[in-house]
Amino acid sequence: MTAYGVAGSLCIREAVDSDLATIRAIYNQGIEDRVATLDEAPKSEAEMQAWSGDHGGRFAVMVAERDGRVIGWASLNRYSHRCADRGLADLSVYIERESRGTGVGTALLHTIERYAHQAGFHKLILFALAENSAGQRLYRNLGFRDVGVFEEHGRLDGRFVDVVVKEKLLKPLILFVCKHNTGRSQMAEAFFRRFAGDAVEVASAGTIAADRPDPGVVTAMEEVGIDLSSARPKLLEPNVVRRADLIVTMGCDVEGVARIDEDWGLPDPKGQTPERLREIRDMVRAKAQALAERYTKFASATP
Length: 303
Description:
The protein is 34% helix and 27% strand. By secondary structure, it is of the alpha/beta class. Helix 5 (184-196) crosses helix 8 and helix 6 (215-222) packs across helix 8. It starts with a strand and ends with a helix.
């Protein structure tokens, strides 16, 4: 049994055989509540044993456990048997009634997404009932994109219901944070994007709103062929923080960031001479290049 993450009192771990009865009970709650699936009849023990047999290895099942009790689960399911679809996985997530809306789904999805990326999956696909507003918010906050709506895609309790198709490319998200997002974090984002290309998702933000990048930083970046003149500082958003695989601060004192994974300890470029700005720029470039090499090497190594 492998534990993949701990969030407060919540432990996310790989499911074991003894979890199957609880997984079945939670699954059947979702069926009974008509919020998560087009299935109408509760799953039997035999059906769940067959379902369990289809999982394992890359197609993992994760459970969320609090105080020794399983309160939710998520699974990676086979999307297709075609070789061309080897990088795709269908996603399921179910939370017990009493624990819905408490962050369990977010923790489960974060964990199983990282597992899926490490297992060589390129994209997750899910099918959600259009009426499931809570599920829609959860997937949207975690970066799933609406592909479209299958209108009247199935019958539930004698009526046709719509199903929303969602997808998410499994690229790590690197988030650079500083106080105003006008200098160091903007440079880090730009350099990281230059070195990593589209293999990794990157963003930057500040904890205090600002209007425009520092003019001296814009000039220094122009000298190395990067145009920040049209860039706009962005205010840090909680859903981006939750999605981020790595949060890097620049060396300034930031408040309200839920977690910080690395701090680069860089000097503030504001008010510096052009020569000093170039030195700071080159420090950012070196650190961004090293980080990009680390992440692109990891991405290319996945099967």
